[in-house]
Amino acid sequence: MFKNKIPHENYIEAYVNKFLKILSALFFASFLIITACEDDLPTQQDAKELTIESVTVSRNMETNTLHLQAHILPGEFPLDSVWFQAYQPDSADPFIEEKLYDDGTHGDMIPLNSRYSVEIDSNFIVDYLPPESDLEFRFIVYVQDISQQMLSREQIYEVQRNYPVRIDTVFFPDTVNASKSEPILFEAMVSDSNGIDDISIVQIRQTLNNGQPDTSQFFEMSNSGTYGDRIPGDNLFSASFPTGPENTIGPREMQIIATDNGNKKDTAFVEFYIKKE
Ligand SMILES: [Ca+2]
Ligand SMILES: [Ca+2]
Question: Phi and psi (nearest 5°) for 83?
Answer without folding.
Answer: -150, 175
